[in-house]
Amino acid sequence: MMELLSLDDFKDTKIDPNWGPFDYLLHVLDVDQQKMQKSQNAPPPPQTLCKQDHKGFKLRSKFNNSVGLKRKRNLKAVEEEDDGDGDRVAPKLKPKRSKKQEKSVCPIPPPDLPPLFRQLIVEEMGGRGLVLVIQKTIFFSDINPTASRFSIPFSQVKTHDFLNEAEAKELDDKNSMQVWLLDPSMRGTSITLNKWVMGSSSLYVLTNTWNPLVKNNQLKKGDMVQLWSFRVNSLLCFALVKL
């Protein structure tokens, strides 16, 4: 409940002959605040009455200081948002990216199976389940007549799902498989599929009739090729595409 001021509240007041009506009003407000603080058993706020000039006093308090700080902070925020023209906002700083992130490049997805191959396999042969096994560059070892094989390193294989469990076990037991291959000129031929383990490395290989295939399709070192797998009546087949 608010208490009214009495004459006792002004017993310590020293009247300045230069005070005007506004000075008396400020002093009354000051006395009222001090009385309210005492009634709440709390120390009075640090307020001072200092003489400004012959015309009046200036009241300073924590309240005024906090308001001033808020105004300064708000002014600073406005200055940061305004670039000087008054209608543009300064851009936010982008987070720095590491050199590794800047150098990283998204891998380019491999091209799809050419339309002519897809038409022959799907529409004419009734092939299903096309899977890209590998995309690689032809090395000298792939066209070396003495080696007579096309290597499919495990480290470059896109997926091993082109084999079913029975076929995978057959190769793991070091047994070869006869499969049907559609060469880059879209001619079919029978070829042998093996799995080789060389030390800590493993690879699939196409052998036996590989040399004639290289010659007939004029494959050379540096050519980029894709090997696709598909099935015709559940039988494993391959298509070798020259890009």
Automatic annotation (TrEMBL):
Pfam family name, one: At2g31720-like
Locations listed in the record: Nucleus
Keywords of this entry: DNA-binding, Nucleus, Transcription, Transcription regulation
Cellular component GO terms held in the UniProt record: nucleus
Gene3D superfamilies per record: DNA-binding pseudobarrel domain
GO MF entry, a single one: DNA binding
Keyword Lipoprotein belongs to the record: no
Bias (Basic residues) ranges: 91-100
Location of region: Disordered: 35-54, 78-109
Main location: nucleus
Superkingdom assignment: Eukaryota
Full protein name: TF-B3 domain-containing protein
